[in-house]
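Exercise 7. Predict the structure of ABC transporter ATP-binding protein from Halobacillus salinus.
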Amino acid sequence: MDTLLANDLTLGYGDSIIIDSLDITIPKGKVTVLIGGNGCGKSTLLRSMARLLKPKSGEVVLDSQDISKMKTKDVAKKMAILPQSPTTPEGLTVQQLVKQGRYPYQGLTKRWSNEDENAVMKALEDTNLVELKDRAVDSLSGGQRQRAWIAMTLAQDTDTLLLDEPTTYLDMTHQIEILDLLFDLNQDHGRTVVMVLHDINLACRYADHLIAVKDKTVYDQGKPEEVITCDLMQHVFDMTCDVREDPLFGTPMCIPHGKGRCLIKQAQAEARAAQQTV
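Solution. The predicted structure, encoded as tokens:
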């Protein structure tokens, strides 16, 4: 299984530095989740790890090789990425989309083979999409579409999957469906999963390893129960909250402070109590 890491990595766009001198190692065969406030560089970091963004300095290393010096198809055979909110050409079927995942294995002398066909069918089976394989992707529900894109990445048959906010715009049911699928792929097949998530409680539930990004570098990293504290939530997200144990999973659960109906009811109760003492 391949090792993925970043050495003294600096990223940016034009003169703007987004990530500065960052060092991380992604645990092999585990689920790693990148967390942090909006605009902190999580997606930029993920894009760089997939070789979609050239570093200003430093390097991303995959299996002891600087990915900037590797052939595109060689990288694609080791690592697959699902970008945020991918768009599908109109009318493309699920099976046609999933077949796109086999492009690293095609060439002038390498035509479509039984191995390619088997990889596509296995990806459809793993994502429960066999019955929908002839449906147009744009006719599916949000959760089904996301599963189709994940199936395409699975067809690449890589050890490592990178996913940028895979639950964006999905309702709670479909969020859990997608995260359960990724969890099963990790548990059953040992795939290394790296993803960006905004929901801290779901990140804690599914991640083996969290990387919190703040001020252009890593603020903290480790197991969710080691990383997620009231202090971190205040410094990384500028949010006051209580951190308790999830009653179902035993993982950290953040309860943000703020206005809401409970505080209104509390104020009303206090007002009634004050009137009764007069």
